[in-house]
Design brief:
Strand content: 25-35%
Strand order of the largest sheet: 9-8-7-6-5-2-1-10
CATH topology of the largest domain: TIM Barrel
Structural class: alpha+beta
Number of helices: 15
CATH superfamily of the largest domain: Aldolase class I
Shape: globular
Largest sheet: 8 strands, parallel
Number of domains: 5
């Protein structure tokens, strides 16, 4: 659902924003005087814009600063964070980084060593002989903010001491623990709290009051579940998060959650916190050798893709410490250091480094202080990829000034040319100006795209693209600049995905035996374990050439409980295929965020190994987007061999047999509206409508002449169907609206039509322009339902308001400069 905090809205200043690519066949509505129906129905003025963030929200931009944990790990000394070190880091930040926006000193675990008379943590006296307050005051005197670390629950010693709760008569720490005793965190350090007892929230608030007295500005709250390696709700810290949120936000203290938060609860995290870690620790735990390694950076790309829709003003996805400041310590090459910095910047991730700030090198300083890169980060607009299917990836975001930020990332092991096609970004071709951000150099104007040549392994080219005048751009329904009011939902199986399905054709020579037809109603896609769509969390390895009967002779495997793989897919069913062996154990299977079953892949000792075994399967799902997650629970190993995805069968039959001479015309039924069929291809050849095929109601008829001309043997015809742009759509019912503010001369609203939809009212600059009927006999995608041109160039706002109790769906806008 689209939460109130996610009612995205552009800033009230003039923005150069845009709308969505349309391939619909419906003619655009032309701006005219309101119809009688339009004038009589809706209110005379559209709803007011919704600000991007709520008044008083702290998370207006990603924070910038330093965190101690990387150096604690690197040094092998959890007590590295003594007063002298923190003061030295604060002074180094003040001298080297502060004028660029870095202003936070955040201290991780190990800062405390006891509790006060009310059961609240007290600073270590050995680490801070003059008191932690002296350190906090020094940080504040440097014009910086100070942060501390906490976890859910309460320590056993505090529970057993049964201490009074500060400013809460009748409450004690012995009464606020959940019974029977239950661990509260991933490591089992403390007991879970009983939030049905009002004394519990008073205890949390007493800690908030103490931190406020000390002048603490930031709290990292670790081991938050669902997440932190546990998403089965056996641990659930959401009520802890809510209580801490109330205690901290009322005092102006930033609240950051950690680690690897479960995206199924993204709206909750954004409602309660200012930021949240999206993955495991970035540190490699390479004591006195390195802070991190390239694989720990590379694994963040799919996480950034998974979270970008949930990040932005109001709450930011946290990629962990940006350890790029000293090549002797970072564990990364210079190219990898620049790539990491680029990813943090374009993802609108908090930019805090874990390096020893007293030992930054020249190259590290140049990365951390590039003002153009920092500006990209602080604009707080997350980028997203054109595709994550390969090792050469293009990421982009539309900025509020109408420019695009584009990252060309080479995640592969060899030099590569990487091209950004303007149409892939939603930008029409034209002479668009390109600037290399890292080089601080204008590269010229480019008509249909830009190719970065010889991008080194693990390297990046970071660009700023300024569109030419009058250029048309697009914005999808789920990007930051599109605003919503009402109870909207993204997808929820309301979306229609663009897809292509093969019709298998067996052309049989005279006298040969026709092959058995098989099941011509089923459609299954097999994804090997190395498919780019599958993401792995934890310490997975990839084995090839085992010779044990694996699918494509390879598997992914892990030995660590809590490690998991995840696949977001579109379809009606899914199957987890692995091996069964005595070394395997139990795995927990989650579907769409819910634990559905725990299955055992083990075999009795001495039983022969069984390869390519379907150990869990489900079918009859609603056709749409689903997420499968499988997590290791026991046994020595957990393996993934492949995942089978059942998909909607769009052509029936999906396999035909024809003679190689005098074939007859063949009818193929379509599961979608024939108007959604964009092409039929035979290899690189597009079949000609009217000659090679014709439409007949809900079917396609392949001509006898075309089929007869096919050579004997097996071939395939690819039926390509249009879908909602970017395979997503927003849907709401009842009172709802969507809008876009843009700077330009024209705008088009693009949306699907469907049998269950009704009228909508379209306003431009506060004036009702037209009521549009969005109903149709069948679901049609990417229809241009309203368009206006010839506006005076400047800032304008289009608002589309639902005009009935029927659903409204929106796919985005196209904007003309």
């Amino acid at each position: 659902m689209t939460s109130p905090r996610r009612l995205l809205r552009q800033a009230l200043c003039g923005l150069a924003l845009v709308g969505l690519v349309a391939a619909g066949s419906a003619a655009p509505a032309v701006a005219t005087a309101p119809s009688a129906e339009a004038a009589a129905d809706p209110a005379p003025t559209p709803p007011a814009p919704v600000p991007r963030v709520e008044p008083g929200d702290l998370a207006t931009a990603p924070y910038m600063g330093w965190s101690s944990f990387s150096m604690q790990v690197y040094s092998g000394d959890g007590r590295w964070i003594d007063a002298d070190q923190l003061i030295a880091q604060s002074d180094a930040m003040h001298t080297k980084l502060q004028r660029y926006g870095y202003d936070r000193i955040n201290v991780d675990a190990g800062w405390n060593d006891g509790v006060d008379e009310y059961g609240r943590p007290t600073p270590s006296t050995s680490l801070y002989p003059d008191g932690l307050q002296a350190v906090i005051d020094h940080v504040h005197d440097n014009g910086q903010k100070f942060g501390l670390y906490f976890i859910p629950g309460i320590g056993p010693e505090v529970y057993e001491a049964d201490l009074p709760v500060w400013n809460a008569p009748g409450c004690s720490t012995g009464d606020i623990v959940k019974q029977p005793l239950t661990r509260a965190d991933y490591w089992g350090i403390g007991w879970a709290l009983d939030f049905d007892d009002p004394c519990t929230t008073k205890y949390i608030d007493s800690i908030g009051a103490l931190l406020d007295d000390w002048g603490v500005d930031f709290v990292k709250f670790d081991s938050v579940t669902p997440g932190s390696g546990i998403s089965d709700l056996s641990l659930d810290a959401r009520r802890d998060v809510a209580a801490w949120s109330d205690a901290l936000h009322g005092r102006g203290i930033w609240f950051e959650l950690s680690w690897a938060l479960d995206p199924a609860y993204a709206d909750y995290w954004k409602e309660k916190a200012d930021g949240w870690r999206v993955d495991w620790d970035v540190e490699c735990y390479c004591e006195n050798e390195a802070l991190t390694t390239w694989p720990n950076i590379a694994r963040l790309f799919p996480k950034a893709e998974q979270w970008w829709r949930h990040t932005g003003p109001g709450g930011f996805g946290d990629l962990d410490s940006l350890n790029v400041g000293n090549g002797r310590m970072d564990g990364l090459t210079q190219d990898e250091r620049r790539t990491a910095t680029s990813l943090w910047a374009i993802s609108a991730a908090p930019m805090y480094t874990g390096n020893d700030l007293t030992q930054l090198d020249t190259f590290g300083l140049s990365l951390l202080t590039n003002e153009e890169v920092i500006a990209i980060n602080q604009a707080a607009i997350p980028a997203h990829p054109v595709s994550t299917a390969g090792k050469r990836q293009v990421w982009y975001s539309l900025q509020d000034d109408g420019s695009y930020v584009v990252g060309l990332f080479n995640l592969g092991s060899t030099d590569a040319d990487i091209t950004a096609d303007w149409t892939d970004l939603g930008l029409a071709d034209g002479g668009h100006k390109v600037r290399d951000v890292w080089a601080r150099k204008n590269l010229g104007s480019f008509t249909d795209g830009f190719t970065a040549t010889d991008v080194p392994p693990h390297g990046v080219r970071l660009l700023r693209v300024t569109p030419a005048g009058r250029a048309a751009s697009t914005v999808n329904d789920d990007v930051l600049q599109v605003g919503y009011g009402g109870d909207w939902q993204r997808n929820g199986n309301q979306e229609v995905a663009a897809t292509s399905q093969d019709l298998a054709v067996s052309v049989v020579a005279d006298g040969d035996e026709a092959p058995a037809p098989g099941d011509t109603d089923a459609r299954v896609e097999q994804l090997n374990d190395d498919a780019a769509e599958i993401s792995y969390s934890g310490s997975w390895s990839h084995s090839t050439g085992r010779g044990l009967g694996d699918h494509e002779d390879d598997v992914h495997w892990t030995e660590k409980d809590g490690d998991a793989f995840e696949l977001t897919f579109r379809g009606t069913g899914v199957t987890y295929v692995t091996e069964r062996d005595e070394s395997q154990g139990e795995v927990a299977v989650y579907l769409d965020g819910e634990l559905v079953e725990t299955v055992d892949a083990s075999l009795p000792a001495g039983t022969p190994r069984e390869s390519q075994q379907a150990v869990w399967t489900t079918s009859d799902l609603a056709d749409g987007e689903h997420t499968l997650r499988v997590e290791k629970k026991s046994g020595r190993f957990m393996l993934l061999d492949r995942i089978d995805v059942e998909q909607e069968n769009l052509v029936t039959p999906n396999a035909i047999v024809v003679p190689d001479e005098q074939a007859e015309a063949t009818r193929v039924e379509l599961a979608r509206d024939p108007g959604e069929l964009t092409a039929i291809r035979h290899g690189d050849t597009v079949l000609e409508r009217g000659t090679d095929w014709t439409a007949d109601g809900q079917a396609v008829v392949l001509s006898a002449g075309f089929l007869t001309a096919l050579p004997a043997g097996d071939t395939a015809l690819a039926f390509a169907f249009r879908g909602d742009a970017a395979d997503d759509v927003h849907t709401a019912g009842g009172e709802a609206w969507t809008d876009l503010t843009f700077t330009g001369t024209g705008v088009t609203w693009i949306a699907p039509t469907a049998p269950d939809q009704g009228p909508v009212h379209v306003y431009v600059d506060g004036v009702l322009k037209q009521t549009v009927d969005t109903s149709s006999a069948a679901r049609r995608t990417q229809q241009e339902l309203y368009s206006v041109s010839g506006l005076k160039r400047g800032s304008h706002r289009i608002v589309v308001v639902n005009g009935s109790d029927a659903p409204i769906r929106s796919d985005g806008f196209r904007f003309s400069r």
